[in-house]
Write a structure and sequence with these properties.
The chain has one domain: Alpha-Beta Complex (Spore Coat Polysaccharide Biosynthesis Protein SpsA, Chain A). Helix 1 packs parallel to helix 2. The protein is built from 8 helices and 7 strands. A 7-stranded mixed sheet has the order 3-2-1-4-6-5-7, with helices on both faces. By secondary structure, the protein is an alpha/beta fold. About 40% of the residues lie in helices and about 15% in strands.
Length: about 240
């Protein structure tokens, strides 16, 4: 793995044994024209062979590295692990299932640099159309976005989309302070960046929902609601981070 990369792409993954190798190859191809790219794949304690499949794919690319949590700890912990192994001046979060196509990454990174942002968050509002996204997840996404924007007074509407781009310095200051490891990890990170005075923006992204996409369960909703409420109270009393 070469040091001093210009662009680090962090790919958290879990339970993707059947697709992670092809997904790694696709990310490599989609960013081949970029200079100084490194791809850090972070397996979050998968038990289905995802780690082994990722390592086999990485062995074919000198700029791909695989790291792993020994046990499932949540996407946030996987991203923290991946970030610690990265060196890029620009850092991209890209969910390993590639529901957000990686072909969008170069244009998003260019906009981050051109617009003077500290972070660009993928905004999938235009993709939330009937027939293009499961109805339940479409409604929940919009409701969560409205609640979050009202409760935390954020300048952006979407925090949970699995494609984001950051400048390294502000991310390095905020990421280690994130306490939540699972579904509302993204929200806490954005709140921390906003409180630090970072310039946040949104970038429209396309979706490519997979047939095997996970469904939202009652347990997921409970955990998201609980963690959002806890974060709101911590923000209210200025104890975030």
């Amino acid at each position: 793995m070469p040091s001093g990369a210009r662009l680090s792409i962090l790919m958290p993954c879990y339970g993707l044994a059947g697709s992670i190798a092809a997904n790694i190859n696709r990310v490599v191809a989609a960013t081949a024209a970029e200079e100084g790219v490194e791809v850090i794949v972070a397996d979050d304690g998968s038990t289905d062979g995802t780690l082994q499949a990722a390592e086999a794919a990485a062995a074919r690319h000198s700029h791909v590295l695989v790291v792993a949590n020994p046990q499932n700890a949540g996407k946030g912990r996987a991203l923290q692990l991946a970030f610690a192994a990265s060196s890029g001046e620009i850092v991209v979060f890209l969910d390993g299932d590639l529901d957000l196509p990686p072909e969008q990454v170069p244009a998003m990174v260019a906009e981050l640099r051109r617009g003077g942002y500290d972070a660009l968050l993928g905004a999938k509002r235009a993709a939330l159309v009937v027939g293009g996204y499961p109805a339940t997840r479409r409604v929940l996404s919009r409701v969560f976005s409205a609640v979050v924007r009202f409760a935390f007074r954020l300048p952006v509407a979407e925090t949970q989309t699995g494609l984001k781009a950051f400048r390294r310095e502000p991310l390095a200051a905020a990421l280690p302070r994130v306490r939540i490891g699972r579904y509302t990890f993204d929200l806490e990170l954005v709140v921390l960046l906003h409180r630090a005075g970072c310039r946040l923006g949104e970038y429209p992204v396309d979706l490519a929902i997979q047939a095997s996409a996970s469904k939202v369960t009652a347990g997921t909703l409970w955990e998201m609601g609980r963690d959002t409420l806890v974060l709101w109270f911590r923000t209210l009393f200025r104890r975030v981070g």
